[in-house]
Amino acid sequence: MGLTQQQVAAALHVSQAYVSMVENGRRELPIAQVYAVAQFYRLRPTVFPLPSTERWTEIEPSEIASELAALGYPALAYLCRHLPTRNPAELLMAALLKNNLEVRVVEGLPWLACSYTDLNWDWCIEQAKLGNIANRLGFVVSLARELSEMHRRTASVETLRWVEDNLRPAVLLRSQTLCREHMTQAERRWLKSRSSTQAKSWNLLSDFSAKLLAHAV
Fold first, then answer.
1. Does residue 216 carry a pLDDT above 70?
2. 179 with 96: CB under 8 angstroms?
3. Residue 172 burial class via C-beta count within 10 angstroms: exposed 0-12, middle 13-18, buried 19 and up
């Protein structure tokens, strides 16, 4: 950005010597400073460090909604009260791990995958396999890829197709829902007959489609 160390230090309220040590790898940037640095340099939240499993699996549904809003999801814009504090990869996996989540939040997940294709997909794939949610992640990524195709985002399409290909071997034979496990057997039978072709390819009970979600991108 063409700034001197003195200018950076003044903006971050630290010393020039501290900035120098960080830049030269002699000091690690503490988590408390990460968000300030990301905001100052206008970095995307995909640079935020990914936490330990214990931290991201405990994210509450209400926080998932507010963080989606902070990341720019239009349908939840009215909930935006702060800048992003979570890595989009962390948020995506925390949401997919929930067995019951509001539809308005679930609808934002394909938007998240479509808008932040630069997130750490290797980490997401690994966590999906560990949490047995490869079906859910695969379906969401497929929807995101279709949304990207609609908007002719070639680079995003290639990335998301790569993620799909790497998730296919991990698909569970047991059918899952897209964060709606509270459904009765009657509801499941009804939804099974109406699930989209894309959902069925991931052994998922869902009538979501990219066409229905296109307004969000």
1. no
2. yes
3. middle
3 state SS of 137? helix
* In contact, 144 and 167? CB cutoff 8 Å: no
Q: Are 215 and 133 in contact (CB under 8 A)?
A: no
Output b/e per residue, 182-210; b: 16+ Cβ within 10 A: eeeeeeeeebeeebbebbebbbbbbebeb
Query: Which residues are bridge partners to 176 per DSSP?
Result: 204
The model's pLDDT over 143-180, given as tens digits with 9 standing for 90+, comes to 999 999 998 899 999 999 999 999 999 999 999 999 99
| Partners of 100 in beta bridges | 180
CB 156 within 8 A of CB 117: yes
At 145, is the secondary structure helix, strand, or coil? helix
> What pLDDT, in 10s, does the model give residues 11-37?
989 999 999 999 999 998 887 788 888
The Cα 115–Cα 8 span in angstroms is 29
